[in-house]
């Protein structure tokens, strides 16, 4: 009997079925060499016949008493994983480990399948068994690479579980083994920001400050630096390292566009997310006599009314789950989109590669990334002259589309619950209450120590904060004590549902903004609820967001430009409660009628610019 692999091309049609039956017969013989099985399975995989490839391994393993059955089980498990059958893959990887208990690769993959089933502790245990046993059977792989794989995946999962201290410890172990890992260094920097663990760039071993700086993600750089050149370089490095180089002609070329102007919104954040919360009314207010509104989205179905409202606000919703980047771009081009609005940039979960194919003649960055993305194909960014003054333009790859009043849309339909009393939320009834509800990663040591100096100079005042994780709370409290502030003057609040969160703002006297990463959605919520914000505006879009909102709402005197001025103004207002009350009265009487919250006018301004750009592109097509 010929035990070689038949030399037919990739199996297809009737002939393919015959070939597969022949291969299964050879597998049942118990005499077919494993290399031949692997070659046949590879052909089936290349032809997309994953179920047949899995059956081939299953048949061979059941029929063959080979000492290499654990390798076949490993390959079989990998195919089941690709088929997204994690329970079956788990069973097969356990078979492999039953045959070869020290088979490190099988244990690594078993951990992934357990994670896919939501069994995080079991996944962590499998990876721990690999990184704590570096002499395990590595089947020809470099043992250190398997240890790093285990450490890095465990650190990633622990970060997702907000077990930041354990995650950071594993990142340190990983970087101690190989300090050149930029992706690990990137997560190390950001996890320290999330914990308010200062200095963020804490070096150790051969991990240098320069390496940490050069590995910093754009999001983390927005927290860390107000240098526009550094932000631009960070974006450009990501684009060079991570995005594919597209040399093909733009996909929008040669496609006739007529009739209504088609606007497409590209995002994975069209659910309960800051972007979704800001933009819900934007989609609803578009002028349907002139515009047709599309969403191209991989957003999660979170079951919230906001998610349902966003979907209802679209004329056409195109889900991109499981759709490749090039295919997604082709869908956008086929839909005849005139203006594609990228709502995500380089933020978490973004699919920037879609934009590199230039599926629309006009591609615009908006809201999700208040910075330059440097993505090839994104030629414009919506802005105003405050967030993006002319002197800042050399640091953007995008050209500004200037709106006359404020860059930010928001939602006039957000509803707050009745406010609790100060006592009910742990605040003193008669003290001056500063609040700062920005995410913990936005809090720099410089600003935090400034806030503590403010508390020292405003007797009896308290600072009301978001407690996102216990590590940040402990670090913030420790530094407060170093600055002579008793822990009881810090009041930590947990996360809340949107209506309860909005109600909180009315209890505070003054919101203290972070720097260089200003409040965006949070600033809008704060001003909508009638609480004044003190901000510091710097040199970058993101450090000027709150200043833009304050200008549009009519309170420019709450904008400062230096740390000293910011501290002085906070102390002045804190020691003059009547001044804070006057700001509140102004916002109660004029805030919601100001240009900041004239959302129909902002939408008309956006549409005017989009129409101009779209018609210009059509005239040149």
What do you see in this structure?
Among the domains are: 261-402, Rossmann fold (3-Layer(aba) Sandwich), CATH 3.40.50; 423-597, 3-Layer(aba) Sandwich (Rossmann fold). The strands form two sheets. The chain has a seven-stranded parallel beta sheet with strand order 3-2-1-4-5-6-7, covered by helices on one side. It has a six-stranded parallel beta sheet with strand order 10-9-8-11-12-13, sandwiched between helices. It has helices spanning 13-28, 34-46, 50-63, 69-82, 86-99, 104-116, 120-131, 143-160, 164-177, 182-194, 209-215, 218-224, 228-242, 274-285, 305-312, 325-334, 445-457, 470-482, 498-504, 521-528, 545-553, 563-574, 577-590, 599-620; strands at 261-267, 291-297, 316-319, 339-342, 362-365, 380-383, 399-402, 433-436, 462-466, 490-493, 510-512, 533-536, 559-560. It has 24 helices and 13 strands. The protein is of the alpha/beta class and 621 residues long.
């Amino acid at each position: 009997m010929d035990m070689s692999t038949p030399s037919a091309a990739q199996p297809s049609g009737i002939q393919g079925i015959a070939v597969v039956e022949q291969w299964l017969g050879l597998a049942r013989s118990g005499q077919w060499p494993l290399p031949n099985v692997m070659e046949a399975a590879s052909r089936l995989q290349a032809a997309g016949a994953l179920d047949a490839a899995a059956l081939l391994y299953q048949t061979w393993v059941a029929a063959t008493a080979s000492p290499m059955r654990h390798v076949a089980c490993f390959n079989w498990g990998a195919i089941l994983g690709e088929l997204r059958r994690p329970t079956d893959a788990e069973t097969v990887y356990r078979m492999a480990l039953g045959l070869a208990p020290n088979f490190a690769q099988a244990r690594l993959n078993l951990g992934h399948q357990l994670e896919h089933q939501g069994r995080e502790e079991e996944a962590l245990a499998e990876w721990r068994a690999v990184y704590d046993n570096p002499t395990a059977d590595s089947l020809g792989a470099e043992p250190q690479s398997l240890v790093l794989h285990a450490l890095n995946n465990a650190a990633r999962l622990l970060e997702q579980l907000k077990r930041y201290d354990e995650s950071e410890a594993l990142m340190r172990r990983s970087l101690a083994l190989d300090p050149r890992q930029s992706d690990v260094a990137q997560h190390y920097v950001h996890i320290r920001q999330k914990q308010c663990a200062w200095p963020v760039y804490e070096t150790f071993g051969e991990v240098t400050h320069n390496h940490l700086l050069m590995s910093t993600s754009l999001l983390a750089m927005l927290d860390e630096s107000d240098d526009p050149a550094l932000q631009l370089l960070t974006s450009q490095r990501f684009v060079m390292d991570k995005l594919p180089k597209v040399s093909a002609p733009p996909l929008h070329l040669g496609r006739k566009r007529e009739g209504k102007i088609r606007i497409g919104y590209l995002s994975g954040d069209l659910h309960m997310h800051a972007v979704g919360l800001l933009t819900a009314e934007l989609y609803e207010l578009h002028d349907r006599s002139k515009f047709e509104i599309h969403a191209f989205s991989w957003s999660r179905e979170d079951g919230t009314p906001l998610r349902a409202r966003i979907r209802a606000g679209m004329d056409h919703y195109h889900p991109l789950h499981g759709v490749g980047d090039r295919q997604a771009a082709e869908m956008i081009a086929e839909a005849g989109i005139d203006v594609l609005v990228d709502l995500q940039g380089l933020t978490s979960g973004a699919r920037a590669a879609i934009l590199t194919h230039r599926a629309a003649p006009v591609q615009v960055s908006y809201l999700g990334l208040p910075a330059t993305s440097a993505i090839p194909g994104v030629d414009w960014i919506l802005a105003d002259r405050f967030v993006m003054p002319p002197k800042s333009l050399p640091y953007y790859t995008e050209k500004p589309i200037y709106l006359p009043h404020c860059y930010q849309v928001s939602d006039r339909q957000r509803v707050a619950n009745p406010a609790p009393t100060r006592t009910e939320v742990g605040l003193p009834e008669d003290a001056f209450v500063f609040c700062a509800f920005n995410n913990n990663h936005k809090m720099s040591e410089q600003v935090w120590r400034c806030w503590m100096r403010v508390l020292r100079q405003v007797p009896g005042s308290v600072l009301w904060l978001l407690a996102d994780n216990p590590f940040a709370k402990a670090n913030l409290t420790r530094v407060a004590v170093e600055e002579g502030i008793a822990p009881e003057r810090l009041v930590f609040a947990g996360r809340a549902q949107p209506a309860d969160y909005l109600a909180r703002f009315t209890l505070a006297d003054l919101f203290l903004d972070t720097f260089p990463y200003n409040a965006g959605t949070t600033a809008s919520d704060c001003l909508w609820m009638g609480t004044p914000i003190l901000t510091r505006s710097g040199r970058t879009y993101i450090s000027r967001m709150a200043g833009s909102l304050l200008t549009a709402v009519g309170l420019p005197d709450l904008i400062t430009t230096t740390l000293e001025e910011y501290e002085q103004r906070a102390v002045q207002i804190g020691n003059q409660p009547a001044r804070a009350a006057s700001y509140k009265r102004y916002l109660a009487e004029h805030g919601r009628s100001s240009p900041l919250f004239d959302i129909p006018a902002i939408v008309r301004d956006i549409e005017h610019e989009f129409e101009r750009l779209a018609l210009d592109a059509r005239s040149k097509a």
